[in-house]
Amino acid sequence: MLDLLIVDDEPQIRKGIKESIPWERYGIRVCATASSGLEALALIDKYMPRVVITDIRMPDMDGLELLEVINKKYTNIKVILISGYRDFEYARTAISLKTFCYLLKPIDSDKLLSHVLKAKQEIEDSLKKLKADQNIQKKVDENMAIIRENFLQKIVRGQISDIKEIKETYDYLGLDLDGPFYCVVMMQIDMPKRANNDPLGNESWYKAAVMKKVESMLDNFLSCHAFSLDDSIGFLTSGEELETDLFVKYFEIIREWANTELGIEVTIGIGNQCSNLMQTPISYREAMDALEYRVISGKNVVIHASKVSANIKGNIGVESFETILRNNEHDILYALRSQDRDTVYEILDDIILSFEKAIKGNIQEKNQLIFMLTFYFTKISFSFEIKMAELFGGENDFYSSLSRCQTVDGIKEFLLKYLEGLMQQSEKEAKSQNSFLVGQAKAYINENIYNNISLVKVADNIGIHPNYLSRIFKQEVGESFIEYTTKLKMQEAKLLLRSSNKMIYEISDALHYKDVGYFTRLFKKNYGVSPNEYRQLI
């Protein structure tokens, strides 16, 4: 499924382009629409579409400016420009900026579809060629590849301590690991949404493409061996020492290539170079710490270990974070119970800010900090007697869910969803409980219609505070406790007036109105006539 972004400042045109053509029938998905070039850039970063249809005349950033940015940053995107102005200058500029095509309004749906399908065909042909090239280059026997990968994993993890055994094995496997310097690089690939339905390949294919690209690019000056490790891919390099800036530059080129040619994002962590193969586990740990630093720096970046080590300042940040959690626990519980969303969000902002500072202080404490968040919010859910699975559709491992969030913003978004779900679930259960309590109150009133009924008596009978009963009674019934009780007593008075020969003062006394004048005024207020007049009418 090819992703398409529509950009136009006129809502009707955006809607027309989206709905006038059955895009999905042709293997095309409209991933989003935007009303300006600036909004479009944000959506491009989020969805990485392969085709963009954009108007020229728009506020903030027009279509030509958007095209210029796309040509620089996202060379794999095909741009179709549309305009209501028959101006040759626009066409000439569009051609110079290498637009895929230029169309004039009013837009002909068949013509637009034809151009989009042509763009789609070019994209598919390019990917097929790239995939074919990868298949041609696959010369190593699969079993031998697995043995080599396992060997590289053991080296970087420090699971082989005999240097003689290491040398014999890498000679046998045909690996060039003679040094004199070594470095471990770890990479995390973020797959685009379309990859799940991509007929040209899956995540494994994209990983293989990146591995092959890195190995071939570094081959001129370094020996580079790729391997998979958990959900990441790694590279063990061997060769002459390289300046840090140069090392980073090469992997920036790799990152840009993955963005533009494959349409995927990659985050890269680079360890320090070492002069002994037995020290590569240190470089690996540094690379993993650098990769973890994406929590702070964001995804799709290259991070060197030197940037991370410069920020390690001990456990002061962790202690401060623990204090923030402890000091806010009572306040956030109260705010959640009272549905005070502003206070809940304000406290969460404080927690996230402290969390970010603690990670900046020492990225190696990330797992501990996430565990602290897990314990804190799990305790909150227990106080509400609500399980996480009830909020997230069966997912019950809070720690794993938080760990999968790759950035601070991702963690905040997850916790916002969690707290909102907690408030909604709590509100739902509170409503159910309130309905039950009000039902008990109404039953008590009905059973004691001939007794002196007061808010305090009823509240004591069902075991809640009178003020709370007054509030929920009004919410559930739509009228106040006094109004409801008076209405029932007046209905009973009508019944007695019709079915008995009791005097008015006797009926008033029976319903616990000692002042017959007050009883008469209440009756007339409810029915428009006095008790005597009512009796005469029936």
Structure description:
There is one protein chain. The chain contains 24 helices and 10 strands. The chain has 538 residues and is of the alpha/beta class. The chain folds into 4 domains: 2-135, Rossmann fold, CATH 3.40.50; 140-308, Reverse transcriptase/Diguanylate cyclase domain (Alpha-Beta Plaits, 2-Layer Sandwich); 316-426, no CATH class; 448-537, Orthogonal Bundle (Arc Repressor Mutant, subunit A), CATH 1.10.10. The strands form 2 sheets. The chain has a 5-stranded parallel β-sheet with strand order 2-1-3-4-5, with helices on both faces. A 5-stranded mixed β-sheet has the order 7-8-6-9-10, with helices on both faces. Helix 4 (88-96) links the parallel strand 4 (78-83) and strand 5 (101-104). Helix 2 (37-47) runs parallel beside helix 3, helix 13 packs antiparallel against helix 14 and helix 14 (341-361) packs antiparallel against helix 18. The radius of gyration is 35 Å and the shape is elongated.
